[in-house]
Specification:
By secondary structure, this protein is an alpha+beta fold. The chain is built from 5 helices and 4 strands; from the N terminus they run H-H-H-E-H-E-E-H-E. One of its GO terms (molecular function) is sequence-specific DNA binding.
């Protein structure tokens, strides 16, 4: 595990809040000059602590107004069956997240986003339930996002 000092923690916190922050602004905010600040960012990237930079978009403005959590049960609990399922759902653009879970009567939880109920029906019936090994599906629809974070506490 990478040992983080106060500068590293501040860099991670600030970049999670604003990944487009300039190096000069970042350096000013944490009290370093630009060169050592940039070196620290590069070290954090090389260590795999910073894995990338992304734009967050408004799904509703793109026409995606229905989010659902889909719980999937599999017929076999083998590495091959799981790998096949995971490859299949990774190729579906509407799948935002796929989690292998315990403590439920399901093996996976998918977070999906679609335009409407017709889009959900098409996704479920024509793609997800056709994946080899899927034996059970239970869906919960998201009414409202109460907490929606991307930042990891540092």
């Amino acid at each position: 595990m990478h040992q983080l000092d106060r500068y590293d923690k501040a860099i991670l916190t600030l970049l999670q809040a604003d990944g487009r922050m300039s190096n000069q602004d970042l350096a000013d905010a944490i009290g370093l000059s630009p060169s050592p600040c940039l070196r620290r960012v590069k070290v954090l990237e090389e260590a795999g602590l910073i894995t990338g930079y992304r734009a967050l978009v408004d799904a509703k403005k793109l026409g995606f107004s229905l989010m659902a959590l889909i719980y999937i049960s599999m017929d076999q609990h083998t590495p091959e069956r799981f790998a096949s399922f995971e490859a299949a759902v990774s190729a579906i653009p509407e799948v935002l997240e796929c989690l292998l879970i315990t403590g439920q009567q399901a093996d996976y939880q998918l977070k999906v986003i679609v335009a409407d109920m017709d889009g959900y029906q098409e996704l479920l019936l024509n793609r997800i339930t056709r994946i080899k090994g899927v034996t059970g599906v239970h869906t919960s629809f998201v009414l409202r996002r109460v907490v929606d974070k991307t930042q990891v506490p540092v």
